Write the structure tokens for this entry.
Amino acid sequence: IHGAPSRGMGFDYFDKFIQVHTLEHPFAILIQFTHMIFEGLFERFPRLRVAFLEAGSGWLPYMMDRMDEEFEKPHRRGAPLLKKKPSDYIRSGQVWTTCEVEEKALTQVLRQFNPRCVMWPSDYPHERLPEMFKRDIPEFLERTDLSDQEKRLILYDNPKEFYRLEI
């Protein structure tokens, strides 16, 4: 799932690209994600796997808590198709995401989400200079807040699994 286009979402109030670009992909993804979870898409299609791309991964812990909180309120049971908490579907292996190279919340995401469902965020050759892409993997490998196993999952094992690559 890709976050854009986001026409009609209020971004026309901004007059600078940086403002629109900061919120455009994440907000559009949050709307799609919320609808898919609460409408029971993953309950109805238990083998479906969906990746949410180009919005980082830091939104997942927040949304897991927020959706569970809303789901557990008895007067707000607007998701009759769900048989378990939203966070259970999110951790099940059906929801995947990409992270950002320098994303500070990544360690929290890996603890609270599912470390087997976070992938490398390559967007090559889009939007950035080639020199920037060349630095991404070395910089990611230098991160001290991630274990070697977590780095391998994100860079290799998880994308291979999601895209069913024969490597």
